[in-house]
Amino acid sequence: MRSHYCGQLNETMVDQTVTLCGWVHRRRDHGGVIFLDMRDRDGIAQVVVDPDTAEAFANADRARSEYVLRISGRVRLRPEGTQNPNMPTGLIEVLAKDVEVLNTAATPPFQLDEHGKVGEEVRLKYRYIDLRRPEMIDKLRLRSRISHSVRAYLEGQGFLDIETPVLTRATPEGARDYLVPSRTHPGSFFALPQSPQLFKQLLMVSGFDRYYQIAKCFRDEDLRADRQPEFTQIDLEASFVEEEDIMAITESMVRNLFKEVLEVELPEFPRMPYAEAMQRFGSDKPDLRIPLELTDVDDLMKDVDFKVFSGPANADDGRVAALKVKGGASLSRKEIDEYTKFVGIYGARGLAWIKVNERAKGLEGLQSPIVKFMEGVVEQLLDRVGAEDGDIIFFGADKTRIVNEALGALRVRLGEDLELYTAEWAPLWVVDFPMFEDDGSARLQALHHPFTAPSCDVETLKANPAEALSRAYDMVLNGTELGGGSIRIHDQAMQQTVLEVLGIDEEEAREKFGFLLDALQYGAPPHGGLAFGLDRLVMLMSGARTIREVIAFPKTQSAACLMTDAPGEVSAEQLKELNIRLRQKAKAETAGE
What we know:
Elements: E1 17-30, E2 33-40, E3 43-49, H1 54-62, E4 68-77, E5 92-103, H2 120-125, H3 127-130, H4 134-156, E6 160-161, E7 179-181, E8 189-191, H5 197-205, E9 210-218, E10 230-239, H6 243-262, E11 271-273, H7 274-281, E12 294-296, H8 298-301, H9 307-314, E13 318-325, H10 333-344, E14 352-356, E15 366-367, H11 378-385, E16 392-399, H12 400-417, E17 427-431, E18 436-437, E19 445-446, H13 458-463, E20 472-477, E21 480-487, H14 492-501, H15 506-519, E22 527-533, H16 534-542, H17 572-577, H18 583-592
Helix pairs in contact: 4-6, 4-16, 10-12
């Protein structure tokens, strides 16, 4: 129906006759001449309709915002003084000969060029309107280019694109499963996959050697800016590899992606052990663009007359850390109070601070409600953090986990608020993760998942599981975990030992993933892999603030789709077919009786 997309027109096409199809982005009537800005997925072109073409003029006259039109006309240069150098098609316009209204449109719920004044709920409810915006089209176009680049790279490296099941069984992978009742097996349920983890390992056992998939995954967990109940992974696995092999393949893939799509040469990918990342930044995904670090001061605080500090400093699971902000003494008390509320989100009971106004004056040159309790250690403290005039020092004192989370988050918040970024892109590999973590429950939990290989042998793991490290690695970019992976357990004895450490007995293990344990008996090769979050990757590369901006039809933070009104109720007949009776309905029926 058309010869060109609107955004394809340029000055080299002057005097050519073109046919365009699209939507009316804007209509203007200038003294009997009608101007239509026609929009499609490639851009906007200005169309001029004059009264000499009576039928075309009449159709243009009745066209309104978001009407669907088909126009034919001649490309010409815009008159001098009316050109728009900020617009890709700003040097030309189309003098219409024919204008056909293909469909009318109701008044849209918001103007596409005024979406910033509209709440996200309205935009998500009318997502098909929101997606017409050039900004949204650009983000989804970028997503398509990223997927294409990734596929081309992995295919070139010998990876095969293999699909894995979406209806599977529940396995312990760190989050709640979405369950699907089976009609043909009453009382039994499928689970939607949190990842293709077990299936890609089985593909390695099957001898496919190199697998990849851009896979849909599902997790029923609390949402935030970089989480959705359904999300997309770039998933890959390879056999006969070590950590360095997987890291080299995927780092090269990401470098190639940024160069091909954004024309960006990423800097060096440094390596950092997990323990160092937590100590210096309070996070296992630190944003290295921010030049702020945590400094341990536990030893200085053990004997101070301030129990808020001395208590954690003397506790086995406590930490006292300082965060110096260069030039931060200019922060107002109101701003400090806001940061105090902020760290409270992470469990911190307060936020102690010291402003260094004139260090040469000793205690008199410091401003703080706590400095009087630390007279004997103030100079050592200032030396350790490298404090100078004009700086502020924030403190965290509590259980190690709370201090890390609170000061780690404060570090990121300060970097954003004070615009402290020193680079545009800061990639990082985090390595040497603990094999297990103690979350306060009766037994240890796998930090990644139960199929991650430890970096020690079976006997060492049995003797001291809490100290074991894993063969896991995470790729981090600008404080966001792009992807995580590991070398997997390919030995049945090691897999059984890990399950025993996790408190999963043989019966439970057979029930949940006996098929994997069986497969490990039949010549499983050494293998490992990594999974990238495609949504997060597109979010970073497009500059979006949330992954909802780079998913065509996302859910809200309450895991609902406002456009389709999902999740929704189903009919009694459907429930009966699935042998399901709702508890609330059962109670109502009982009350009615």
